[in-house]
Amino acid sequence: MAAEKSLAASDISTRTIRKVQNRLIPLLFALYLIAFLDRTNIGFAALTMNADLEITSAQFGLLTGIFFWGYFLFEIPSNLLLHRMGARTWIARILVSWGIVAVLTGFVRNAPQLYAARFLLGVAEAGYFPGILLYLTYWFRRREQAQMIGLFMTAVPVSYIIGAPVSGLVLDHVHWLALASWRWLLILEGLPAILGGIISYFLLPSRPAEADFLSVQEKGWIAASLDLEKCEKVGEELSALRALAHRRVWHLALISLTFQIGAYAINFWIPQGVKSLSNLYSNTVVGILVMIPYLAGLFVMILVSRRSDRKLERRHHAAIPVIVGGTALILLGASNSPLLSIALWTLAGMGYLGFNGPFWSLPSDFLSDASAASGIALITSIGSLGGFVGPSIVGAAANGPGGIYRGLAIAGVSFFVTAGLVLILPQKVRQASVG
Question: How far apart are CA 248 and CA 253, in angstroms?
Answer without folding.
Answer: 8
